[in-house]
Design goal:
Length: 159
């Protein structure tokens, strides 16, 4: 049986989405955008403003922004590649919403991030606490540009 792959991505600026689409193309996976029910404005994303939506969410470990849609048939996927920008050193809270919304038992989860300043750090390990059951986690990677050779090398290591 072939490994059916979903590439699920949250992207605030479009960078993570471009990388995710390239990953899906290279691995032959389906692409799904984790879109917030309420879109983020530029003001919402102003990390220097302690009252901005993103700052408030990231300072509240229980914050779970709503997602606009759902994955049609999550049960059919063997591997889920999850992409996100780094916010405050970790994944945005909407990634926790996504992970807590599905049963990932028996699946492999492969995280990747984009970041203007920091690497994966402990962000991929932090995600483990949002998933229960028998899940295999692959090593996370930072990929800022949809460069085929980097993506192919990572996929060969983790798939």
């Amino acid at each position: 049986m072939a490994n059916k792959i979903l590439v699920a991505v949250f992207s605030a600026s479009g960078v993570t989405k471009r990388v995710g689409k390239e990953i899906a193309k290279i691995c032959g996976g389906d692409f799904y955008e984790i879109a917030p029910k309420e879109k983020y404005t530029m003001g919402d994303l102003n990390w220097m403003n302690k009252k901005s939506r993103s700052s408030v969410e990231m300072n509240d470990p229980s914050a779970r922004p709503e997602i606009a849609g759902t994955v049609a048939d999550m049960a059919s996927y063997d591997t889920v590649i999850i992409g996100f920008p780094i916010w405050w050193g970790v994944a945005p809270r909407i990634i926790e919403t996504f992970l807590e919304s599905y049963d990932f038992s028996g699946k492999t989860i492969l995280p990747f991030c984009t970041s203007g300043g920091s690497g994966v750090g402990y962000s991929d390990v932090e995600l483990h606490k949002n998933v229960s059951g028998d899940v295999k986690w692959g090593k996370g990677i930072q990929i800022n540009r949809p460069k085929e050779s980097v993506i192919t090398s990572w996929l060969q290591d983790v798939l």
